[in-house]
Amino acid sequence: KLYPASTTKILTAYVALKNGNLDDVVTVSANAANQASDSSVCELKEGDKITLRDLLYGLMLRSGNDAAVAIAEHISGSSEEFVVLMNAEAKALGATGSHFVTPNGLHDEEHYSTVYDMYLFMNAAVKSSRYTANYTDAAGNPVTKEWDSTNKYLMGTEPMPEGVTVIGGKTGTTGEAKYCLVQYNENTAKEPVISIVLKADSRDNMYLLMS
Prior knowledge:
Blueprint (H helix, E strand, L loop, with lengths): L8 H11 L5 E3 L2 H4 L15 E3 H9 L4 H12 L2 H14 L22 H11 L4 E7 L5 E7 L3 H4 L8 E11 L3 E10 L4 E9 L2 H8 L1
Antiparallel strand pairs: 1-2, 3-4, 5-6, 6-7
């Protein structure tokens, strides 16, 4: 039983893909835009109009907590109702050691998972390192944002382990969860390998353990 932090967003994306239309235009609410300034955000503003597709890129690359709430509200009307879907989907995938409280993974004692359950979510969901989103703000002005992946392997700032190609993945960090990374890779035989590190004591050690 471990805290998954933002690796939660793997399941959030999976649920959104199953229940939403990528071309839906989502209007960002005040609630979604109102995220702690020191948390990971896409800098969405109340009234922004953005496709579900772009929100998912912001969710998985930028790890946007604002994107997570906007997605949840679009799919289910509220984060609370979306979490009901998350927990039902987790059980359907065979994840017996998980319970989710938020779509973004901000710390809650009752929001937890296991390494094996995270494997199940990653296996069900996966790819990309940089994305340019184009959307419209509340005043109708065009906005362009470039979101880089939080995964250093994909950005080329951390060397990939020999014989391994990193395809995609999701980082997560809170004070309680520590440094987390759920990753989808291929070996030299092009076989899929899902590798997971939870609760590393530093970002550098997270990559050391992952490698």
